[in-house]
């Protein structure tokens, strides 16, 4: 059995661009969730109808992957590598920035025009040194492609022999867990993997430790394999697990590399247009 090491609230709350009101579940509270770098929970928040889609304009990334999971509302993405798409409830975008990408993340135009509730999460997944400068990629994963094992949607990795659709560079488990009051599920992962449970909302016990409210993070031990979750109320959780990447991390805003020299190179490359540009 894994043990719950600590439980944390969001370390910061802020607006990303003008469209994503986020509560940051790590690393602003000091949690190191290696191989995951960052987790922002956006919303739920009702947006009034708007003429122009809100969101984040053109910006770069290098050295990792951004994973966007939509719970409510519709978001649109497009990038300098030609990737792009619109995702709604249950859908996932898995964008591999790797050597460098420039993208924008906005509310989808029709959703923005109508207005409505937006609720989503964005996770940053580190890449091992050997893949930080790989070719960028984009995986559009629709809700229908995500297999369900009991109360768990397997986005990435494997649960009880069922594999999720996301292609990853290191062993990772990303599971969307929905429980009703009285519901129970057991997640088993490989020994030595890191694990954390992000509670978006609800009330559960995780291996006997109570976690409740909104935007909470339970960090589990690397030792052990089993995670038992029992819900006392309707609960929405994201399980994050994976093999730690034990390499140096140098990060600066949207760039996560291994050394400061590589960070300086990333800034130069972005400024010189070597990560590409968005078409107007
Ligand atoms: Mn971005």
What key phrases describe this protein's structure?
single chain, 280 residues, mainly beta, Jelly Rolls, eight-stranded antiparallel beta sheet, seven-stranded antiparallel beta sheet, globular, binds manganese (II) ion
Which residues sit in consecutive blocks of at least 5 with pLDDT less than 50?
Answer: none
CATH architecture: Sandwich
- Tally of DSSP β-strands: 23
Helices and strands, in N-to-C order?
EEEEEEEEEEHEEEEEEEEEEEEEH
Q: Using the CA coordinates, give the radius of gyration.
A: 18 Å
The average pLDDT value, as a whole number, equals: 97
Reported for the largest beta sheet, the result is: 8 strands, antiparallel
Put simply, the count of helices is 2
Structural class, from helix and strand content? mainly beta
How much of the polypeptide forms β-strand, as a percent range?
Answer: over 45%
Name the hetero compounds present. manganese (II) ion
Tally the structural domains. 1
Q: Could you name the CATH homologous superfamily?
A: Jelly Rolls
Assign an overall shape: globular
Termini separation (Å)?
52 Å
What fold name goes in the CATH topology slot? Jelly Rolls
In helices, the fraction of residues equals under 10%
Q: Write down the CATH class.
A: Mainly Beta
Task: Write a structural description.
There is one protein chain. The chain has 280 residues and is mainly beta. It has a single domain (4-271), classed as Jelly Rolls, CATH 2.60.120.10. The chain is 6% helix and 55% strand. It is built from 2 helices and 23 strands. The strands form 5 sheets. Strands 1, 13, 14, 17, 18, 19, 20 and 21 form an 8-stranded antiparallel beta sheet that branches. The N and C termini lie far apart (52 Å). Bound molecules: manganese (II) ion (MN). Manganese (II) ion is lined by residues 59, 61, 66, 103, 105.
């Amino acid at each position: 059995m894994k043990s719950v090491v600590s439980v944390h609230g969001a370390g910061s709350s802020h607006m990303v661009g003008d469209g994503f009101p986020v509560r940051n579940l790590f690393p602003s509270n000091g949690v190191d969730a290696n191989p995951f770098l960052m987790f922002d929970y956006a919303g739920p928040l009702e947006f009034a109808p708007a003429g122009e889609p809100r969101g984040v304009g053109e910006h770069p990334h290098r050295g990792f992957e951004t994973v966007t999971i939509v719970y409510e509302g519709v978001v649109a993405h497009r990038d300098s590598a030609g990737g792009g798409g619109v995702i709604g409830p249950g859908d996932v975008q898995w964008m591999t920035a790797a050597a460098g990408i420039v993208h924008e993340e906005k509310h989808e135009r029709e959703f923005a025009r109508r207005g409505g509730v937006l609720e989503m999460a964005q996770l940053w997944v580190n890449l091992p040194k050997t893949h930080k400068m790989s070719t960028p990629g984009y995986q559009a994963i629709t809700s229908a492609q995500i297999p369900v094992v009991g109360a768990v949607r397997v986005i990435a990795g494997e649960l009880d022999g069922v594999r999720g659709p996301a292609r990853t560079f290191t062993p990772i488990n990303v599971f969307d867990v929905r429980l009703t009051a009285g519901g129970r599920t057991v997640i088993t992962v490989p020994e030595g993997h890191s694990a954390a449970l992000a509670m978006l909302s609800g009330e559960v016990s995780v291996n006997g430790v109570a976690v409740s409210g909104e935007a909470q993070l339970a960090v589990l031990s690397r030792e052990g394999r089993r995670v038992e979750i029992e819900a006392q109320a309707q609960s929405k959780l994201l399980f994050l697990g994976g093999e730690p990447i034990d390499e140096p991390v140098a990060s600066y805003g949207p760039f996560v590399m291994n050394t400061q020299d590589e960070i300086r190179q990333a800034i130069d490359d972005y400024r010189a247009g070597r990560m590409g540009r968005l078409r107007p």
